[in-house]
Amino acid sequence: MIVAADPGNEASGSEAPVAGQRRYVAYRAQKDPARGMLSRFHDKEWTEAYIHGVLFDL
After folding, report:
1. Which domain holds residue 46?
2. 36 φ, ψ to 5°?
3. Mean pLDDT, to the nearest integer, of 4-12?
4. pLDDT band for position 44 (50/70/90)?
5. Is residue 56 part of a domain?
6. Is 50 helix (H, G, I), strand (E, B) or coil?
7. pTM over the 0.85 mark
8. Is residue 51 part of a domain?
9. 40-to-6, 36, 56 alpha-carbon distances in Å
């Protein structure tokens, strides 16, 4: 099956998965269940920087 597969145009097909991944990461960053716990230990600015800069950095 691999030999018979059509490789297609890699450039045109690579944007859709990346866009989907970006939507997923944005959703997860918004709904991160660790936000409450992290906010109790650190201030809000640090928590948001950590969530968006480390955990979900796309």
Report:
1. 33-58
2. -65, -45
3. 69
4. very high
5. yes
6. helix
7. no
8. yes
9. 52, 6, 20
Count of domains forming the chain: 1
Residue 5, Ramachandran bin (φ over 0: left; ψ between -120 and 50: alpha; else beta): beta
Note the pLDDT tens digit of each residue in 10-35. Answer: 555 678 889 999 999 999 999 999 99
Helices in the chain by DSSP H: which ranges?
A: 10-13, 15-30, 35-41, 44-50
As a whole number of angstroms, the distance between CA 11 and CA 57 comes to 23
On whether residue 50 sits in a domain, the answer given is yes
Cα of first residue to Cα of last residue in the chain, in angstroms, is 33
Residue closest to 29 by CA, chosen among 53, 45, 46, 3: 53
Neighbours of 47 (CB within 10 A): 19
